[in-house]
Amino acid sequence: MKRRVLPALGVAATLALTGLAAVDASGSATGADPRSSLTLMAPAAPGGGWDLALREAQQVMRAESIVNNVQVINVPGAGGTIGLARFADIGPDPTQLMMTGTVMEGAITVNGSAATLDDTTPIARLAEDYLVLVVPADSPFRTLDEFLDAWRAAPHAQAIGGGGLGGADHLLAGLTARGAGIEPGTINYIAYSGGGEALTALLSGTVALGISGFHDFSDQIEAGNLRALAYSAPNPVEGIDVPTLTEQGVPVTLSNWRGVVAPPGITDDERAELTALMTEMAGSPRWADTLARNKWEDSFLTGEEFDRFIEADQARVDGIIEELGL
């Protein structure tokens, strides 16, 4: 399997800025209460899917009086693996949670990350998000078939922009290429640290096509600045007027699940309390509204079932990466 290690430029500065907001490993103390104070780490830049999901959760926890004081911090870089490494070293602190999902699973493998999800305590899977393929409004490609024809003719000439290497966007680019008869190893994929950067690249013409969660591009699609060509859901989704890849003859579906994990070493009672906290949030009407507004699919899962899901899904993602030569 090919492994690519991303440059660590800016890591020290990032950790220095965020370290003050997160509890130091030595600060873990018996009796810490996540319902009094909770820190949520988004291992990505502000404005992306992980950041959005955590800030939505933050608002629900506040509005429902589930947590007295809840804050979100950002530790961006390398598909979430910089944040993962930082989080794994926090120590057994039950007042810390980190967002994770498909993107991080891929980045762990592609980047050869020393830290893995085995170094965390799974708490809950919250939702699944499907991905949209978009082009600028002035693009010559008005349909998916037109883009695929040009992509087949010159795979490397059509730059594809999305999230980190090995993440859901990258996987979908490779799967779509293969489904269209293109060798995945020949595509020109450019990784960005968040949806905002990918959007800028699209609008500036740096990339021909962008891939991200629907919400990342929805405003620009509605404004007419972007044209959506395809959606990665297995079936049409209410409120999203974009044909699926499968409907257009490309037999590919892919979801980007999002969930939260706690640091390693917390007690069974602390894990149970965090699970109860997230279950209360996920069962609230405000969270149901969050899912509907963002077009996320409810896929709530906890306990041993979530443990088994992570293990199986990491193996699935590893298999896709190896098979596609990414």
Automatic annotation (TrEMBL):
CDD domains: PBP2_Bug_TTT. Residues 1-21 form the signal peptide. InterPro entries: BUG, Bug_dom1. Keywords: Signal. It comes from the Bacteria. PANTHER family: TRICARBOXYLATE-BINDING PROTEIN (PTHR42928), UPF0065 PROTEIN YFLP (PTHR42928:SF3). Belongs to the UPF0065 (bug) family. This is Tripartite tricarboxylate transporter substrate-binding protein.
